[in-house]
Amino acid sequence: MRFRDRLAIRVDTFIQLTLNGLTLGSVYALIALGYSLVYGILKLLNFAHGDVFMVGTFIGFGALRLLGGSSSPVVPVWLLLTLMTLAAMGGCALLGVGIERFAYRPLRDAPRIAPLISALGVSFFIAYSMQLMFGADLKNYDTFSMDNGALYFKGFNIGSVRVDLIRIITIGAAFVMMILLWLLVTRTRLGKAMRATSHDREAAAMMGIDIDKVIVFAFVLGSALAGAAGVLFALRIPTYATIGFLIGLKGFTAAVIGGIGSIPGALAGGLVLGFAESYTQGYVSTRWSDLFVFLILILFLLFRPQGLLGKADIRKV
Amino acid sequence: MGGYDDELTRPLEGALEASTSEGATSPAVGRDEWVARHGDNRARRGGPLGTLEERLRVVPWWAWLTLFVTAASLVPVFSDSGYVRRVAFDIAIYMLLALGLNVVVGWGGLLDLGYVAFYGIGAYAYALLSSDHYGVHLPSLVSIPLVVVIGAIVGFLVGLPSRRLTGDYLAIVTLFFLQLFLTVTTNGDDIFGHNVTGGADGILRLDPLNLFGHNLPVSSGGGIFNVAYLYVVLAAFVVVFVALRFVNLSRTGRAWRSLREDPLAAEVMGMPVNWLKLMSFSFGAAIAALSGTFVSALNASVFPLSFSFPLLITIYTMVILGGAGSQAGVVIGAILIGTLLEVLRDPGNSRVLFYAVIVLGLLAALRLSLRLAVVLGGLFVFGLVVHVVAGSIDHGWVNGSGGSGGQVADFMARWVVVPSAPAGWISPVSYITLVVMALILTLLRGWVRLVVLVPVLYLAAFVWENVMLAHPEPTRYIILGVLLISLMILRPSGLLGEKRVEII
Asked: Is the Cβ pair B169, A305 closer than 8 Å?
């Protein structure tokens, strides 16, 4: 094989892996945002977030079934995808509010370890409730049969690498949602209240900000994003009841790498994680990508615990 | 201001009693006098129960331990069923694991979510040191201490990157470590071409324990569990329990507690906070590794999936239920949860348990009162009415089989609606409705609550009979999850845990 051909294959592989990383990373970023929003305000590591994501994938699956299944939906495909995503976002937002109200709010003034343990319980409860109701088998959206595979066949080429429509949708939707969130947090009164609360909860309360409302809103936003991420993720990869553990772990790692509490940080962290996973899977081994992600996490915790875009935390006594 | 006089006089009484019962007027070295006296200022229960409690409090801990271990070692005498003995062994392992986790969570105040990975490391280390996998066959008296040291070192290393960080980061690092452990063991059959961990198939045909040159066969004739293993674990339990007891009373133990209460203050007082954290981590990891050796020796095999997230939650529930920080508490927690999980395996037993818990729970919450009678009577009538109505609409709705027989099952067949062929939507709809209504119930007060309680309980019985009995595996875990959440909210100190003394 001539050098030029080999180089071309190298470049194609690289583009393909970058594309994989971008798709995966945008989903991780959406999940990381949920962790960041809640952590920024409550300083609580919401272990149940990965399971909210899982519920999102299941709601999307249910909506797909209700609308006629992937091969013969009763609505056009674009509307089908929108409805699935909206259903998942709405359902997850409700779930998030419920979790906050019943599992975290009673523990808001408890020692720090208490809500963490409660969160573990919530995560476990949700995962196995879904397994109880819907079984432990894989739920496949079977996106390929939608519109005779149009989601996979349409798209454009970079060199000889196919960028199929489903990736464009995933990445595009994720970025649109992140921009919307960014605008919401920086441009609206509620966003200002959120930022103030995350800066100093007591002072914000004294300034007349309704802390409960802000916290509930953070859960609504974070959980809705997780729901959307769930549908976007499950479009390409089958889901199951206990998937939330691993995905949640990755999402939180992304949040920590990017700088927990920061919205651009969540995006950066998600992408770093997505790329890291994709490149190690492509160039090293599919089996050991978790190991590399873990090493990256450890390196960040050792040398830059505030993350890529976070601010160093000053402890006040 | 009725309580005013009490508050004034009680400390005095407490001090007097303390001086008469223990014969010492000053608290132990290193204990703040006020905090020491606080223990005697607890509101005491009146009546015979209170007296009993006082009497029991005087019994020293080693007497309890002896009593308990004697009772536990008599299990094989009273029951010759291999099943009961095996369950006793499993519960003894749970007790060891809970003791170890208590060091990290209860004393150190650190959230170690990689705990079962250390358990797994112990099991795998034992497997590699005593099997044909590498042809290494060390005697147990060499391999077990070696495994414990390995566990302690790995625990130390895992704690290392988190030394500067708050609890949340530690939690995520350890959780990731658990995931990594599973990845490595599952894919470890091909590490640069070497088969290290046997992959998903695990490592088989391990040596049995070998003490002083004698092999302890895993089964004593006819494949029945060898009781010697139960005694070995109980012996290890006693050693660990006593050792930890002394550690807790030592300087290190006090330092751990102060670290848990306020790491910043501990640091300001000149305590080597990072070192203490790493130490409690290592202690926990070593104990987990120790438990791992016994289990893998008895099973003669190790598999990656035995050390996953559900087991972690199980041990956490034991520690939290028993009371983090109390050694006796976590042991009781381990026994209770271990027994509960075993009982839930069998539909007949778990049905009895379910209704017993409901009735006893109502009794505990409402006492013997008119309200209790109203709720129980209402529940009874409500069920009968629903059953009759449903049966008259369509007989197929009520003639489903109630599983195994027995009087409880017979009664339930006339009271709970069990369709013979439930539609697919029934289980999610009824379950979600139950969860939502149970949550709403916690927001209601007064008579409304009692009125809503009746249909919720009936719905719970419906879900139990129709959905949960058919799926014991998720049901067990759902119960653990609910237990964890409600314990953290209602009684974070568990059964025997220390109540925090707030010093302002």
From this structure: yes
**Domain locations in chain B?**
3-58, 84-343, 349-470
Give this prediction's pTM: 0.88
Instruction: Provide the residue type at B416 as one letter.
Output: V
Q: Any chain B CB within 8 A of the CB of A294?
A: yes
Instruction: Give this complex's ipTM.
Output: 0.89
% residues pLDDT > 90 (chain B):
28
DSSP A74-125: SS-HHHHHHHHHHHHHHHHHHHHHHHIIIIIGGGTTS-THHHHHHHHHHHHH
Residue A5 counted as domain residue: no
Q: Which of B187, B320, B489 sits opposite A287 (nearest CB)?
A: B187
Give Cα B154 to chain centroid, integer Å.
24
**Cα B251 to Cα B254: distance, rounded to the nearest angstrom:** 5
- pLDDT band for position B404 (50/70/90)? low
Q: At A191, is the secondary structure helix, strand, or coil?
A: helix
Retrieve residue A188's tokens: 């609206």
Angle at A62 between CA A59 and CA A66, to 5 degrees: 135
* Residue A121 to residue B109, Cβ atoms within 8 A: no
Total number of domains constituting chain A: 1
Interface of B with A in 386-425 (CB under 8 A): none
Does CATH place domain B84-343 in 1.10.3470?
yes
Which residues of A, range 27-66, sit inside 8 Å of B by Cβ? 39, 43, 45
Q: Is residue A316 part of a domain?
A: no
pLDDT on residue A295: 84
Positions in chain A short of pLDDT 50: 317
Q: Which of the pair, B408 or B279, is modelled with greater confidence?
A: B279
For chain B, say whether A188 makes contact (Cβ under 8 Å).
no
Question: Hey, what amino acid is at A171?
Answer: I
Are the C-beta atoms of residues B91 and B339 closer than 8 Å to each other? Answer: yes
Nearest by CB to A125, from B164, B427, B478: name it: B478
CATH number at A50 reads 1.10.3470
Nearest to B478 among A111, A114, A129 (CB): A129
- What pLDDT, in 10s, does the model give residues A113-137? 888 899 999 999 999 999 999 988 9
Minimum distance, in Å, between the CA of residue B163 and any CA atom of chain A? 9
Mutation choice for A interface testing from B172, B433, B443 by most A CBs within 10 A: B172
Q: What is the DSSP string of A209-264?
A: --HHHHHHHHHHHHHHHHHHHHHHHHTTS-B-TTTHHHHHHHHHHHHHHH-TT-HH
The closest CB to that of A113, out of B109, B482, B484, belongs to B109
Rg over CA atoms, chain A: 20
Q: What residues of chain B lie within 8 A of the CB of A107, using their CB?
A: 488-489
Q: Is B438 on the interface with A (CB under 8 A)?
A: no
Helix axes A244-258, A113-134, angle to 10 degrees: 140
Distances (CA, A) of A1 to A11, A14, A160, B322: 15, 19, 18, 68
Contact A103 B492 (CB under 8 A): no
Specify the pLDDT at position B21: 44
Cβ–Cβ of A121/B105 closer than 8 Å?
Answer: no
What tokens were used for B14?
């407490």
| Mutate: best of A59, A117, A131, partner B, most B CBs <10 A | A117
CA-nearest of B332, B320, B309, B302 to B477 is: B309
Interchain contact B165–A (C-beta under 8 A): yes
In this structure, is residue A209 part of a structural domain? Answer: yes
Contact B241, B327 (CB under 8 A): yes
Beta bridge pairs of residue A162 = A157
Q: How confident is the model at residue B173 (pLDDT cuts 50, 70, 90)?
A: confident
Residue A1 forms part of a structural domain:
no
